[in-house]
Amino acid sequence: GDTAVWTPTSGKKFRVMKYMIAVQGLSTTAAGGVVAITLRDATKAILRTFNINVPAVALTGAALLYESNWLDLGNGYLSAAANNVLNVNLGTAFTAGGVDVFVVGTEE
After folding, report:
1. In this predicted structure, what is the pLDDT of residue 86?
2. Per-residue pLDDT at 58
3. Checking DSSP bridges between strand 14-24 and strand 71-78, what pairing results, if any?
4. Strands (DSSP E) along the chain, which ranges?
5. For residues 42 and 21, what is the distance between their CA atoms, to the nearest angstrom?
């Protein structure tokens, strides 16, 4: 399901200028395998989908399973409508660990 990353002030739109995705080192899923991580403008997929292999058994000693570089969008991505929430969506539920989403931007 969706988890809110950025809820703009009432009547405003978010503009994502840069973002980064990180998957915590002890993250697991029930069966292991590729998890699609997608940012969504309310319910519409935007930007790019990250496909990360997440194991069924936690890797010991791993600080991170994955960390993207900062992705610079220049003038940014402006939400399609005021009051839309920027969400992160995981294609498969995690049984442990999680995903960190870092966003830089403005509200208009």
Report:
1. 98
2. 87
3. antiparallel
4. 2-6, 14-24, 28-29, 33-41, 44-54, 64-67, 71-78, 86-90, 94-96, 99-107
5. 18
N- to C-terminal Cα distance for the chain? Answer: 27
Residue 91 has pLDDT above 90, yes or no: yes
Output the CA–CA distances (angstroms, integers) from residue 105 to 38, 48, 82, in the order listed.
18, 17, 15
Residue 11 carries which DSSP code? T
Chain segment 30-74, per-residue pLDDT in tens: 999 999 999 999 999 998 999 999 999 988 877 899 999 999 999
- At residue 27, the 3 state secondary structure works out as coil
Identify which of 12, 5, 2, 3 has the alpha carbon closest to the alpha carbon of residue 102.
5
Where does the pLDDT of residue 3 fall: very low under 50, low under 70, confident under 90, or very high at 90 and above?
Answer: very high
